[in-house]
Design a protein that fits this description.
The complex is a heterodimer of chains A (314) and B (141). In chain A, helix 9 runs antiparallel to helix 10 and helix 10 packs antiparallel against helix 11. Chain A is α/β, with parallel strands linked by helices and 314 residues long. In chain A, strand 4, helix 6 and strand 5 (135-142) form a beta-alpha-beta unit. Helix content of chain A is 40%, strand content 25%. In chain A, the strands form two sheets. A seven-stranded mixed beta sheet of chain A has the order 3-2-4-5-1-6-7, with helices on both faces. In chain A, strands 8-9-10-12-11 form a five-stranded antiparallel beta sheet, sandwiched between helices. Chain A is globular, with a radius of gyration of 20 Å. Chain A has helices at residues 2-6, 21-38, 51-59, 71-75, 81-94, 112-129, 148-157, 177-181, 203-216, 221-240, 285-293, and strands at 12-19, 42-47, 66-70, 99-103, 135-142, 160-163, 166-169, 194-198, 246-253, 256-263, 296-302, 305-313. Chain B is globular, with a radius of gyration of 14 Å. Chain B is 24% helix and 26% strand. Chain B has helices at residues 62-70, 90-105, 117-125, and strands at residues 29-30, 43-47, 50-57, 77-88, 109-115, 134-136. In chain B, strand 5 (109-115), helix 3 and strand 6 form a beta-alpha-beta unit. The chains are: A alpha/beta (314), B alpha/beta (141). At the A-B interface, helix 9, helix 10 and helix 11 of A face helix 2 and helix 3 of B.
Chain lengths: 314, 141
């Protein structure tokens, strides 16, 4: 076991780092970042505020060698984060260097729906980066502020946890865990829902319905424009895959407006929409754009059908 | 690029431009059947070296749009005027990008102009700036 701690595992090393308070956070992360700089690695940190500023201050002059990203920007919707790490890894690898990342997607103040997406995102990181270039990603979990279940779950979504001498296997994060989590239905809405079925040729009707509903919810014009596009992409997917039909559902929750499209089609790849497909590839761009533009996007699919739920914070 | 047209909107929105040599009737296309689907259809017309797209540039019309653009008059310099789409989605952008890619591969110079900030953002997200950058219309916030 000691050997496993001291020896650096190869490939993608995805580790959870549980901490209590600012001091423990800085103790762990500053060491991890400086270790990377010593090894001449490219260090990219994606943290929420105020952790971002605390870390920058604690690193002093070393902060100049680190790329800082605001996790609330790149990962407000957790479905966007893999694209950001993919970009960082590609840039780093092209430059002939090794990447070291710090990313805290499950930060204090997140809603239950966001934390559920953080879980799925953590599982999908290993799907995305296993078998690629070797790099380390440390994911801090704030044990003082997050629900205990979230921190326990982190050990099941990370193959490693940060130990005193380096990454230690957790024994969690089975290879099929992401595929399984992708099939688990979302919790049903608790409030009144507007629902309507649509078929081929009705994508534009869906689009206009969502646009006018968004305006009636008091959503600003720029965000309504995003939702109109998102509805169009989702309805297009429903009419081109599956049996050509789908159901549009619209509802509001305290502080949020939700647009959901369900259909009978099945998406086999849980990574759908998380990365921009290569140029020759036909599908997948619509969901990618939706992930990039919307506040929170939840995709679930099984042989029984597909659900895409878009939450807009009011 | 775009020769005398520069970056300002000069098109008059005329669906019927002067007749040209043996190519498509102008407007190049009024998407058929789209109004029965309940949306504003796309329209494409040509003014000199400028190809103008209007209406909905979306998945519903993307395949036809691709064919129509492929038949647009050729020239060493061509400007695609994006100032008028009421709506564009990923599939619509893909049709435009694939047209631009084909024209550039044939050695033509392609300028995509007058896009709304939202269309330019969508274009960038889709990675099509690597094919051809779009310029945003002047005065747009």
């Amino acid at each position: 076991v000691t050997g496993a701690v001291l020896e650096r595992p190869g490939g993608f090393v995805h580790e959870a780092f549980g901490y209590r308070g600012e001091e423990e956070f800085l103790d762990g992360v500053v060491g991890f970042v400086r270790d990377g700089l010593t090894r001449d690695e490219t260090v990219v940190v994606a943290e929420p505020r105020p952790r971002l500023d605390q870390l920058r201050a604690a690193l002093g002059e070393d902060a100049g060698a680190v790329e800082f990203l605001d996790m609330a920007d790149i990962g407000g919707n957790p479905g966007r984060i893999i694209a950001a790490w993919t970009d960082a890894l590609e840039r780093t690898t092209r430059a002939g260097r090794t990447l070291r990342g710090v990313g805290e997607p499950a930060y204090a103040g997140r809603s239950p729906a966001e934390l559920a997406e953080c879980d799925l995102h953590e599982l999908l990181l290993d799907v995305a980066f296993d078998g690629g270039p070797a790099w380390r990603l440390m994911c801090p979990y704030d044990q003082q502020s997050l629900p205990p279940s979230v921190c326990t779950q982190a050990l099941a979504t990370h193959p490693y946890r940060t130990g005193p001498g380096g990454p230690v296997p957790t024994g969690g994060a089975r290879a099929d865990a992401a595929a399984r989590a992708f099939t688990v239905p979302l919790p049903p809405p608790t409030d009144a829902v507007l629902r309507g079925e649509f078929g081929p040729g009705e994508v534009r009707t869906v689009r206009r319905t969502v646009a006018s509903w968004a305006r009636s919810c008091g959503i600003p014009a720029a965000t309504a424009q995003i939702l109109e596009l998102a509805a169009s992409e989702l309805a297009t997917n429903s009419t081109t895959h599956g049996d050509g039909h789908g159901v549009l559902a619209l509802w509001t929750e305290p502080g949020a407006a939700v647009v959901e499209v369900t259909d009978g089609g099945s998406i086999p790849d849980p990574m759908v929409g998380r990365r921009l497909p290569p140029p020759g590839h036909r599908g997948g761009r619509g969901l990618y754009v939706v992930h990039q533009l919307c506040d929170l996007v939840q995709v679930r699919s099984s042989p029984a059908g597909t659900t895409v739920r878009i939450t807009t914070w009011l | 690029m775009g020769s005398a047209y520069g970056g300002t909107m000069r098109t008059q929105g005329r669906p019927s431009a002067p007749p040209g040599p043996a190519d498509h009737a102008r407007p190049v296309d009024d998407e058929p059947g789209a109004s029965s689907a309940g949306g504003s259809p796309y329209r494409v017309w040509v003014e000199g070296s400028r190809v103008v797209v209007a209406g909905s540039v979306d998945a519903c019309g993307a395949d036809r749009l691709r064919h129509v653009l492929a038949g647009a008059p050729s020239g060493r310099e061509v400007t695609l005027d994006l100032g008028r789409p009421a709506f564009a989605d990923a599939a619509g952008c893909r049709a435009l990008a694939s047209w631009a890619r084909d024209r550039i591969a044939r050695g033509d110079r392609v300028a995509l102009v007058e896009a709304s900030p939202f269309l330019a953002r969508l274009w960038g997200l889709l990675g099509y700036d690597a094919v051809a950058p779009v310029s945003v219309r002047r005065g747009a916030a």
